[in-house]
Amino acid sequence: MTSVGTPPAFRRFNPAARRATAGALVSSLVGALLALVPAAPATAAETLLSQGRPATASSAEGTAFAASAAVDGNLTGTRWASQWSDNQWLQVDLGQTTAISRVVLTWEAAYGKAYNIQLSDNGNDWRTVKSVTAGDGGTDDITVSGTGRYVRLQGITRATGYGYSLWEFQVYGGTGDTPQLPGGGDLGPNVHVIDPSTPDIQGKLDAVFKQQESAQFGTGRHAFLFKPGTYNNLNAQIGFYTQIAGLGLKPDDTLINGDITVDAGWFNGNATQNFWRGAENLAVNPVNGTNRWAVSQASSFRRMHVKGGLNLAPNGYGWASGGYIADSKIDGQIGNYSQQQWYTRDSAIGGWSNSVWNQVFSGVEGAPANSFPEPRYTTLATTPVSREKPFLYLDGNEYKVFAPAKRTGARGTTWASGTPQGQSIPLSRFYVVKPGATAATINQALAQGLHLLFTPGVYHVDRTIEINRPDTIVLGLGLATIIPDNGVTALRVADVDGVRLAGFLIDAGTVNSPTLLEVGPQNASADHSANPTTVQDVYIRIGGAGAGKATTSMVVNSDDTIIDHTWVWRADHGDGVGWETNRADYGVRVNGDDVLATGLFVEHFNKYDVEWYGERGRTIFFQNEKAYDAPNQAAIQNGTTKGYAAYRVDDSVNTHEGWGMGSYCYYNVDPTIRQDHGFKAPVKPGVKFHSLLTVSLGGNGHFEHVINDTGAPTQGTETVPSTVVSYP
Length: 728
Description:
Blueprint: H1 24-35, E1 47-48, E2 55-57, E3 80-81, E4 89-107, E5 112-120, E6 127-132, E7 139-158, E8 165-173, E9 191-194, H2 201-212, E10 222-226, E11 229-237, E12 242-246, E13 254-261, E14 277-280, E15 283-285, E16 290-292, E17 299-302, E18 305-306, E19 309-311, E20 323-326, E21 329-330, E22 334-335, E23 341-349, E24 352-353, E25 358-365, E26 377-380, E27 383-387, E28 391-395, E29 398-404, E30 406-410, E31 422-426, E32 430-433, H3 439-447, E33 451-454, E34 458-461, E35 465-467, E36 473-484, E37 491-493, E38 500-507, E39 513-519, E40 534-542, E41 550-556, E42 562-570, E43 586-590, E44 596-603, E45 610-612, E46 617-625, E47 637-638, E48 641-642, E49 647-649, E50 656-665, E51 674-680, E52 687-696, E53 702-707, E54 722-727
Parallel strand pairs: 9-10, 10-12, 11-13, 12-14, 13-15, 14-17, 15-18, 16-19, 17-20, 18-21, 19-22, 20-23, 21-23, 22-24, 23-25, 25-26, 32-33, 33-36, 34-36, 35-37, 36-38, 37-39, 38-40, 39-41, 40-42, 41-43, 42-44, 43-45, 44-46, 45-49, 46-50, 49-51, 50-52, 51-53
Antiparallel strand pairs: 1-8, 2-4, 3-8, 4-7, 4-8, 5-6, 5-7, 27-30, 28-29, 29-31, 47-48, 52-54
C-alpha cells in the first residue's frame, strides 16, 4: 500500500494528559495538603512487554506487512497493514499473564477511527478495557488497567478507504511493587580484571590453574580480563572453564610478552580431553617463538595475534582431538602435528604443517591449497557469511560490548585495517547475571529490554529463558553454565532478527528435556538474511558432570541462522554415563532455510547426531564420533539400515552443501558393530558434499560406506580413513 498523505499531527489519547491546569490558589492549597501526607514509596518504571513477542492478525495486505512488523521495534521502517475492510484485529502474545498499564499505537496514515483494546488470558475469551470512538491518527497513548497474556487491537471503523496500518503496537506494564532491575554493575568474584600494575599477576593465574587444570567436571568458572597495556614475563596456563581475554578494541591493544599455554600434563600427555576453555582478543609474543595451544573440542582461539608460531600438539606430541581458530593472525607457522582435525576461519597465518584426518580452512590468508584426500586439507577461499562473536572491552573507564558487523565473502581478520566494523553497547544496557539469579529474574531483565552478560558460574533455571527482542545479546564469560531443571528447555529464541548467543555451556538436567536450545519457534518463516541470529562458542553437554537427559539438544527453526563453533556432546566418560543413563537421541536438528554452520562438532548421540530438513543449508567443517557405548548391533538398528548416520539430510531437501566432514566410530562395548554409512543424503543435483571421510578407531566397529552406498569400507585396526573427495 502506498501512503495516503501526511499523518495527522502527534496526539496522545490520554485523558490525564489533557486535564486543564488548576489556578495558582488551588495549586498552592493542594501543595500544602500533600506536604502533610507521607511520600509513597517509589514504584517501578514501566516495561515494554510486546517488542519481539509473537504477533498475529486477522489479515495482512501482503507479506511485507505482517503482524510481526508492528512489534519489531522499527518505528518508521516496518508496519502491519490489514486488508481494506473494517473488522480487523492485531494481537500480541506476551508469554505470560501480566499487569498492563498502557498501549501505544503509532498509526500510519491509514488509521482507526473506532476501535477497542482487549485483553485475554487464553487468546479466546476477550474483555474490552478501552473503547475509542473518535480516533484521529498519529500516536494514541492509551492508559489501561487490567491483566492478560494476550493484548488485542480490535478495529471497528476505519478512517480511510484503506485498511488499518500501524508502525508499532506497544504494550507496557510492570508498574507496581516489582522494582526495575539495574543494568551494568560489577562483574562478580570470578572475573579477574588485570592491569599492568596489578601485583603478582603470575600468582593469580597459577592459583586458578591449580584449581582448574584437571577439574573436567567441576563447578569452578573463571575469566581473566586484561586491560590494554603490556604485560611481561607471564605464562598464563589455561585450565578447564577458564577464559583469558583482552579488554582492548583490537588484539594488539593488549600485549603479553610471554605465553598462553594449554598442555596435557594432567592427562599423561594426552590432549583429547582438553575441553571448555578459550583465549580471545590478545597479542602474544611467545618466549621461545612458539606458543603451545594443545586443545580439543569446545576450545576457541578468537581475535588473537600470535607474534610467532603456534603449536597445537601437547608436549611429547600425544593425541589431540581438534579445535577452532577465528579472526586471528599467527605470524609464524601453525604446527598441527598430532591434531586429528581442526577448523580455521577468516584469519591470516604464516603457514601450516601436517594433516592427520581433517584440516579445514575458509577465508584464511596463507592457508595451504585444497588437496584432499592427501594431504587432507579442505580449503575455501572465503567464508560465505560470518559475523564475529561479541566481546567485552573498555572504552576509557567504561565497559562496553562490541558487536561486530556481518561480513559476506569474508577473508582475513576484521581488525587488520584498524578498528573493526560494528556497534558498541554500554554495559549499562546489560543485566549482569551472577550466581543465584533465577530464570524469573533473567526473564524480567529481558522484558525490560536489557541484554544479558552471564558472569562465570553455574545457573539452574526452573523455566525457559525467553529471548524475544531483536538484536538481543546473551554473552557468557568463563564458560558460564546453564542447567535446566524439571525438564524445561534452557533457552528459546523467538523468530526475530539479530540475536547473538555466545560463550556459554548448557548442561542437561536429570529430568529429560525435549530440547535444550531452540532458535526460532516451530514453522518460523521470517527472512533474517540481512541480520541473522548467531550461535557462537555455545556448547551443549548431556552427562559427564552427572546424569542428564535430553531428546534433542539444539533445534534451529529460524532461517539464515549461523552456527559458528559449537560442541554438542553426549558424554562418553565422566559421571552419569550409560546407554540409557544419559539418553539423548538427537544432537542438532535444522529446520530453518539458509542455515550456515561453520565449525560443527556433534558427538555420541543414541540416534542421529545431525538431521537437516531446511533448504540451502551449508556446513563448513563437521567432526563426529558415533556413540561408543552402543551395547550391540540391535541397539542401533535403524529399520533395515545398520546404524544411524552421523549427518543426515532429509529426502525432502533439494539443495544442500558440505565441506570437510568426518565421522569416526569406536564401538568399544561391542567391536563387531557395523555402521552402513557416516552420511546419508538424497541423490539430487543440488545436494553436494566435498572432502568426506569415515574412520574406525583401532578397528572397534566399522563403516561399510562413507555416504549412502559410496566409499570404501573401513578396514583393520590401523585407523586409516576411508575418503570421498566429492559426492555425487
